[in-house]
Amino acid sequence: MSPTTIAYGYLTIAIICEVVGTTFLVKSEQFTRLVPTLMMGALYAVSFYLLAQTLKTIPLGIAYALWGGLGIVLTSLAGVVLFKQNLDTAAVVGIAMIVGGVVVMNLLSNSVVH
Question: Are 11 and 58 in contact (CB under 8 A)?
Answer without folding.
Answer: yes
